[in-house]
């Protein structure tokens, strides 16, 4: 992939529609990069990301100071989903798990968790490496999907072996897609975020991988081939997101000036 391929037309890797030019932005503080928008499913991508080798010179972005804090939060949310689905005695895999932080925290909670990431060394849960080709009761993939240039191809192996995939990625509203200058989630300084989904693009991706989709419409999503329990639907509901946003708004209003 080279810089010369920028400016070419591309088909959407999720739905196959012809993508259109959306905007430009500076990645890694020096590369002028195009972002394209799918008019059908709303996916925004940086096609042909020739800068990724440089962006991944460190498997985890050096500026990600919130890694452990985020892992702690995700360990709590994952525990809630596991308990809701009554899977506590099952086996689990954190796919693209980086240094093994989540697997370590989940094992400390008593869950049989392992980690898999061919691009990062398992530093925090040594001895508990997993296999994406094996079946697990739940697979997690947190802050991964926005890194995938072709999610169908890259998720096919793990999806074929597993009936539940719980993951995070921030969605954008298809009717008003944010520009790179206006949304922090582009993470232009890292150069690693190259795909930005909508609910529609995730639904199509789920269909292509043989899953159903349950999502809160914001950041937590579950691909599943088996029915989910009512409590899980509540956990992953837009109503919870709206309630949380309302609480944040009240807190901001009550804060002293």
Task: Describe, in plain words, how this protein is organized in 3D.
By secondary structure, the protein is an alpha/beta fold. It has a domain at 67-171 and 197-254: Rossmann fold. The chain is built from 7 helices and 10 strands. It has a 6-stranded mixed beta sheet, sandwiched between helices. A 4-stranded antiparallel beta sheet has the order 1-2-3-8, with no helix packed on it. The longest helix has 18 residues, at 67-84.
Defining traits:
single chain, 257 residues, alpha/beta, Rossmann fold, six-stranded mixed sheet, four-stranded antiparallel sheet, 29% helix
What order do the SSEs take from the amino end to the carboxyl end, as H and E? EEEHHEHEEHEEHEEHH
Q: Tell me roughly what share of residues is in helical segments.
A: 25-40%
Strand content: 15-25%
Major pleated sheet:
6 strands, mixed
Alpha carbon gap, first and last residue: 51 Å
Q: Please provide the count of β strands.
A: 10
CATH architectural label of one domain: 3-Layer(aba) Sandwich
CATH superfamily annotation of one domain: Vaccinia Virus protein VP39
Number of helices: 7
In round numbers, the mean pLDDT is 91
CATH structural fold name of one domain = Rossmann fold
Radius of gyration: 18 Å
Unreliable stretches: 246-253
Strand order of the largest sheet: 5-4-6-7-10-9
CATH top-level class of one domain: Alpha Beta
> Which structural class should the secondary elements be placed in?
alpha/beta
Shape call:
globular
């Amino acid at each position: 992939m080279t810089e010369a391929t920028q400016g070419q037309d591309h088909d959407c890797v999720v739905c196959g529609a012809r993508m259109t030019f959306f905007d430009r932005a500076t990645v890694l503080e020096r590369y002028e990069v195009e972002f394209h928008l799918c008019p059908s499913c709303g996916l925004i991508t940086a096609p042909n990301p020739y800068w990724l080798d440089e962006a991944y010179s460190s498997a985890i972005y050096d500026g990600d100071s919130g890694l452990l804090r985020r892992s702690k939060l995700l360990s709590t949310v994952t525990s809630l989903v596991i308990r809701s689905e009554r899977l506590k005695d099952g086996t689990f895999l954190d796919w693209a798990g980086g240094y093994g932080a989540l697997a370590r925290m989940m094992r400390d909670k008593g869950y049989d968790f392992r980690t898999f990431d061919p691009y990062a060394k398992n530093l925090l849960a040594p001895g508990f490496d997993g296999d994406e080709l094996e079946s697990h009761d739940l697979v997690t993939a947190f802050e991964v999907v926005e890194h995938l240039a072709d999610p169908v191809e890259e998720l096919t192996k793990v999806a074929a072996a597993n009936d539940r995939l719980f993951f995070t990625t921030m969605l954008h509203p298809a009717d008003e897609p944010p520009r790179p200058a206006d949304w922090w989630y582009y993470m232009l300084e890292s150069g690693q975020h190259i795909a930005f989904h909508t609910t529609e693009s995730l639904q199509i991706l789920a269909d292509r991988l043989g899953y159903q989709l349950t999502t809160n419409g914001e950041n937590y999503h579950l691909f599943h081939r088996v029915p989910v329990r009512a409590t899980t639907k509540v956990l992953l509901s837009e109503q919870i997101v709206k309630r949380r946003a309302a609480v944040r708004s009240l807190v901001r209003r009550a804060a002293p000036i």
